[in-house]
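Input set for joint prediction.
Command: fold jointly, output tokens.
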Amino acid sequence: MTREFFSVKTVAEVNAGFRPARRTVVEACALGDALGRVTAQPIVCAHDLPGFARSAVDGFAVRASDTFGASSSVPAGLTVLGQVDMGSSPTSIVLAPGEAVAIPTGGALPDGADAIAMVEHTAPAVGGTVDVLQPVAPGESVVRADEDVRAGTEIVPSGQSLRPAQLGVLAAAGVTSVAVFARPRVSIFSTGDEVVVPETPRLEIGQVRDATASALAGMTHRGGGTPEIGEIIPDELAHMRVSLQAALEHSDLIVVSAGSSVGARDLTAEVVDSLGDPGIWCHGLAIKPGKPTLLAECGDVPILGLPGNPVSALVVFGLIGVPLIQQIGGNTRPTPAPRLPAVLTRDVPSAPGRLDVVQVRLGQSTSEACEAEPLFAKSSALSVLALADGQIQVPEDASGLYAGAEVMVELHG
Amino acid sequence: MTREFFSVKTVAEVNAGFRPARRTVVEACALGDALGRVTAQPIVCAHDLPGFARSAVDGFAVRASDTFGASSSVPAGLTVLGQVDMGSSPTSIVLAPGEAVAIPTGGALPDGADAIAMVEHTAPAVGGTVDVLQPVAPGESVVRADEDVRAGTEIVPSGQSLRPAQLGVLAAAGVTSVAVFARPRVSIFSTGDEVVVPETPRLEIGQVRDATASALAGMTHRGGGTPEIGEIIPDELAHMRVSLQAALEHSDLIVVSAGSSVGARDLTAEVVDSLGDPGIWCHGLAIKPGKPTLLAECGDVPILGLPGNPVSALVVFGLIGVPLIQQIGGNTRPTPAPRLPAVLTRDVPSAPGRLDVVQVRLGQSTSEACEAEPLFAKSSALSVLALADGQIQVPEDASGLYAGAEVMVELHG
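tokens >
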């Protein structure tokens, strides 16, 4: 009645070894829509930034040599020609020896000037002159024309999910359209004769509403993909085959969460086996929860078969599915999983030889660490999903963790 | 020429003390669009889940008393009545003493049965009977009807930004429309005669493209708000007054990043001062970079005045602006900032009495910590924005950090 798992792999072996070649197409994206989109090529700044020498302070543009030896008792008296206006080119001004120009922070350095005397180091003097009270070196308080970014510099690498600050850099460089990978289209199927859509107002005895698909859709969004929740497939081979065959046409990744019965667990493998080369890559993951995970490729579309219970499905999807979405969507620099240090409130037993993923709820926060309460429950318990703030991992070579241990909690955020 | 800052506050004082009463309206949101939306009331499960007693394993539904004393040598032989189908109510089956029914994981427990014998602890026998090889206790391997969630239990609290797993729980409970706070509308203005829109193909000497607005828009998205980038306001009081006055009508938060010149820095304060009660709450933050930060309320609309340079503006917006968006949008349970432990590669000097925020770039990752390289540059340097993976904080009471120190990096993700 139980099927032997073949080629059981660790999570690390899967992430290193299962590397589908499929990538999404490259498309243009407006800067305003580019948050979180993945760059398809390095982005280079076409010209120097700021592009002109500018003042870093409020003060007076001067010739540094005019200020050598200046002091409070013997200031350098300079004739003030006028002022530089923000955003304007001071082309009408050329500084001769003995002259100065008032300049605001960010103002363009006029011709002839090579340094700025900070306003705090000057004093107004009689007859349109200013006294400079200490010497300034050439280049002092001047931002060079290429100091922010030199022309030709890579400002964003390829394969990067764009962050807010990077949008700012692109805007500064005048890049308002970005070549990005299309979001991977992820088809999500739940299976099982007992599973009904969330909209079902009243359940019959024996029925459960589909929790997994909605959760996987949310995780897909977060991972940079576009989820498409497909129909709920009954435990029937021909039906599943038709559904998956159709999804192969328009999916970059297919995710099937199995029903909880034994027959349902085997169905996905049988169907995938029949859909073509190269077929099943591994069936069985050295992880709890999540052992009956299946990885395959049919044509060039990867297929991920998840365990039937929602907690297991989400754990495996986070460890295997989200990295797959990133890979297919060209994201070669995924942000490390957000983590928070915490102190375990209870012992966590674990069997060596497999990765244990334990859901935790965060308690009172101190400045650097908070408490992590392990949530033990039958793995089907939806309440675990509702309460968990994150999860911890007990590695393959460990045999559990003790209360009081410092752990890193991966946040579900 | 320089204006005195009045009522300088720490970031902690601002976050604790500046608490605008404004909240967005409550609206209905479909479950499929609810990722990251903030619940406006606690969500309660209307009925028990799973709602019927079900089997946690593959096996045989039995009367526990029939198995007492069973062993491999003296098994309990039970007559198999048939099988429970997934998703179906076994109403036609009532177990009498000495009877058993085959049942899959998740199948509904038939009347008369009170426990499940795991298939591994049974052996098929002759003539439609099964041998149970060890005793089972009442309730064994049975998930009670209210075991996942009891009717009336809160499954998601109020003020919670919905996570993928919570979408799953709501789906399981049949909640397909959720009352959420509307996303706060955040009007973003950049100011300065020198600032031009990112679409400007060629800059004149003295001009810079607006980097800040695009970056703030991205941070607003991430914080749960809807950004609206307004016009670039020249350094002219009447103009700014008209623009902000108009924005008050349709904004839940107004953000103004000042120009970099002294006149521009003062302008926002003057305009906000003229827009009405209660007006300016503080002008000056004990932080580097970001000192000239302004907080105000005009009517019931909070206004945040940011420093002119992009790095400073982003640092302050992350520490003050994003929490404001969450507050206005009803998010009372923001996810702790994602952090990653790292080891500093260089000394970071800091002046006591102010919070120093230092941008860092992450280096090689080991299993638990990676290297954090502080990015020092003139704070206007766009390259810092491009390179920084995150930031570290040097608290008010510290006078710097040494190379080799363990730090927590807040990721920009």
